[in-house]
Amino acid sequence: MDLSGKKMLIGVCGSIAAYKIALLVRLLVKEEAEVKVVMTASAQEFITPLTLSVLSKNPVLSEFTKENNGGWHNHVELGAWADVYLVAPATANTLGKMANGICDNFLLAVYLSAKCPVYFAPAMDLDMYNHPSTQASISKLEGYGNVLIPPEDGELASGLVGEGRMVEPEKLYEVLNTHLNRSVKKKSKVGTLAGKKVLVTAGPTYEAIDPVRFIGNHSSGKMGFALADALTRAGASVTLVSGPTSLKPANANIDLVSVVSAEDMLNACSERFPDQDIVIMSAAVADFTPVEVAHHKIKKNGAALSIELIPTVDILKELGSKKTKKQVLVGFALETENELEHAQEKLKKKNLDMIVLNSLNDKGAGFGGDQNKVTIIGRGNNIAEYKLKPKAAVAKDIVNAVSELI
Ligand code: CTP
For residues 329 and 146, which has the higher predicted lDDT (pLDDT)? Predict the structure, then answer.
């Protein structure tokens, strides 16, 4: 592929994967791209500026100033020069700084000045990659329109095996090549779910007993909010119907509908259902509600108190009975025993296209926490088990699985 006249800027951070950049630069230069490289100080411990300047045929920059002569390197000009800026390998440290506007080296100043699309390819140990703070940085950067080139599962420098290994130079080359040869559309339009309308439910519902008390559950809403965010990034128009939670949608384009009880949630979903392409019910809807709500605070008088409960409408089942062939309906199942079997039963009983099983048996997963471990079951009984991950990463897995159904 001819890349003549294309201007590539590469920001190299301190990681063992830095050696792959030498090969990438060679591939790009071979196709006549103009390549300039900036490096952090720690990157130079892994690969020399000389190697990269010889291969790129351009000086490699790391410092703001030139040697003692009052001259300075213009990061603004460099940021404006590039057609695309790739930060690779991107370390947890640099990702955290990029996500938070920290500008204490030349590579970061160029990032903040860059007018072109920015891609970043993380490289780090699996635990560092899966740490909620790294995932939060990545989410934030994606939210700013930067593009993640996800690391692969594989052998890591630590000797561990898992997610965190930066992709090979050929893959980086392919991503850049595709980018440079494609007419650049607005990021929000290029996702796999572009143009799709998706309704997501999140959080608990509160069933009133009297004006001050309710029956609720421990759902935090984090999974549903993460899903709404991931769906928006995939290009979908998202309505988020949420029970009581303190969370705020991560993206201003998400249409938040706040509800309190299972009945409110049923009404909000039923009203909007005919317009939706996809519905994902991640809310922990109360299964029972008091028959009567006392008008005044119930006073204690020493005697035992019984509250009569009746079942709520199963919203998912109700939507499943009205679903058209074009609509995709996804449910969640929270099980504590015979998990797979019960989830498969719910998939059939509620006429779903997919069910996401989360189990409370996994430590660190489920209600309230920042992580989740899910198994996704499809209609053809295809079963995909995922490992324990931050909820933002789980949301991406679910969105990918839904996109495959569409
Ligand atoms: N659900 C719903 N309306 C209800 C109860 C549950 O739409 N009144 C949805 C949940 O949002 C979830 C799915 O049904 O997507 C499964 O919820 P879960 O609590 O796992 O199961 P239930 O169907 O309530 O059955 P059980 O509590 O007996 O396991």
Answer: 329
- What is the mean pLDDT of the segment spanning 41-60? 96
Task: Please pick, among 74, 177, 217, 267, the residue that the annotation labels catalytic.
Answer: 217
Q: What kind of fold does domain 197-292+305-405 have according to CATH?
A: Rossmann fold (3.40.50)
Q: Which residue has the higher pLDDT, 160 or 56?
A: 56
Q: What is the number of other CB atoms lying within 10 angstroms of the CB of residue 368?
A: 9
Verify whether residue 217 is a known catalytic residue.
yes
Phi, psi of 13 (to 5 degrees): -110, 175
* Closest residue by CA, ligand 1 atom 9: 316
Give the mean model confidence (pLDDT) for residues 168-183. 84
Mean pLDDT of the chain: 91
Around Cβ 170, how many Cβ atoms within 10 Å? 12
Q: Is the peptide bond before 89 cis (omega within 30 degrees of 0)?
A: yes
Mean pLDDT of 166-172: 95
Distance, CA of 95 to CA of 91 (rounded, Å): 6
Q: Residues spanned by CATH 3.40.50.1950 within the chain?
A: 7-182
The average pLDDT across 290-316 equals 96
State pTM to two decimals.
Answer: 0.61
CA distances for 369 relative to 199, 221, 324, angstroms: 23, 10, 35
Q: Where in the chain is the domain with CATH 3.40.50.10300?
A: 197-292+305-405
- Dihedral pair phi/psi, residue 363, rounded to 5°: -65, 135
Probe residue for ligand 1, chosen from 199, 223, 241, 285 as the CB with the greatest number of ligand atoms within 8 Å: 285
- Mean pLDDT for 207-230 is 96
Tell me, what's the pLDDT at 122? Answer: 97
**Exposed/middle/buried for residue 159 (C-beta within 10 Å: 0-12, 13-18, 19+):** exposed
φ and ψ at 377, to 5 degrees? -115, 130
Instruction: Tally the residues of the chain.
Output: 406
**Residue entry with tokens 């072109």:** 116
pLDDT value for 251:
84
Q: Is the CB of 262 under 6 A from ligand 1?
A: yes
pLDDT in tens, 95-116: 999 999 999 999 999 999 988 8
Residue that is written with structure tokens 């952090």 in the block: 40
7-182 under CATH 3.40.50.1950, yes or no: yes
Q: In degrees rounded to 5, what are phi and psi of residue 352?
A: -95, 165
Neighbours of 33 (CB within 10 A): 24
